[in-house]
Design goal:
The protein is an all-alpha fold. It is built from 15 helices and no strands.
Length: 309
């Protein structure tokens, strides 16, 4: 009788079962969270290992590259010697390539961002005949790979005499269909129509509205396109390879590939392996610095639509 009297009531049994179910669900949730965390850690390792290998290899001599473990440092540290060799080899041609890459990337990024912002603002806030048709054509051009356009671009540039000039690399980089699409979506959400109408009522021209109002509000999207274009131009290889054959106009990508070919073609040039690796390490530093200093802008530009109700 005592046992029967000590049994919990029906409500208590239900509460006990509910608590047990929550505990099981919590354990299942922690298991899922642990799997997600493990996956993220594996992805982090996957992306960091090549960069770590690059840093480690840049501290080794040519012989140590082939005789020591690739993912750890050699007993001797030769980074400073390798940097000296990179910047002094062949009369400092690496400095020319580095300057060329910076010039191409900066000019292309600024120009492409401005054009994309103007186009995106026009498609989003202005009405004109054939607007949707033109925008559909721009969207369709996103599907065309850049490598497929390299040879036609070369033929066009050769007809106007721009081959082996900086404009041969800069002009094609000014066209960013994805940047236009991104800026149109961003302008539709970031620019209230009432604000633009108020400026028009006050007598402001469309150019004045764009430069004084729209461009400031579109700054996060502008920086996003700028970073994407900067990275794309900095890492561009095939187009500069096609439109330039003078080492004085090579960017880093083509110059380092040329060194790599030399190191593989002649046994006496194997010392160039250290130059290629150290030069590759130098080439990624500007990209890392740019993303670190501008990340708050481009993150806001990419996530603006998801945060707006």
């Amino acid at each position: 009788m005592a046992r029967i009297g000590s049994l919990p009531a029906g409500g208590s049994i239900a509460a006990t079962r509910q608590t047990s179910t929550r505990a099981v669900g919590r354990r299942g949730g922690w298991t899922l969270r642990g799997l997600v965390l493990l996956f993220l850690v594996l992805m982090l390792v996957y992306f960091v290992i090549p960069l770590f290998w690059l840093v480690v290899s840049a501290t080794k001599t040519n012989d140590e590259l082939f005789s020591t473990f690739g993912l750890w440092f050699a007993p001797d540290f030769h980074l400073l010697e390798n940097l000296h060799d990179v910047f002094t080899y062949d009369d400092g041609i690496f400095v020319t390539w580095l300057t060329n890459s910076a010039y191409y990337a900066v000019v292309s990024a600024l120009g492409a961002s401005l054009i994309a912002t103007l186009a995106g603002y026009t498609f989003a806030k202005l009405s004109f005949p054939g607007r949707e048709l033109v925008f559909a054509i721009i969207l369709g051009s996103i599907m065309v790979p850049n490598t497929a356009l390299a040879i036609p671009t070369y033929l066009v540039l050769s007809k106007v005499g721009l081959v082996n000039t900086p404009l041969a690399i800069i002009l094609p980089s000014l066209v960013t269909p994805f940047g236009v699409y991104l800026m149109r979506v961003y302008a539709e959400q970031a620019l209230p129509d009432d604000l633009l109408d108020a400026a028009r009522v006050d007598g402001a021209s469309e150019w004045r509205i764009f430069w004084s109002i729209a461009l400031r509000l579109l700054a996060p999207g502008f920086v996003t396109v700028l970073l994407l274009t900067f990275v794309g131009t900095w890492n561009n290889f095939f187009l500069p390879l096609v439109v330039t054959n003078n080492p004085a106009y090579y960017p880093l990508t083509v110059g380092l590939a040329n060194w790599n070919q030399l190191s593989q073609a002649f046994s006496g040039s194997r010392i160039l392996y250290t130059l290629v690796i150290t030069g590759s390490l130098i080439s990624v530093i500007p990209l890392m610095i740019g993303f670190l200093f501008l990340q708050r802008y481009w993150q806001g530009g990419l996530t603006f639509g998801s945060l707006r109700s």
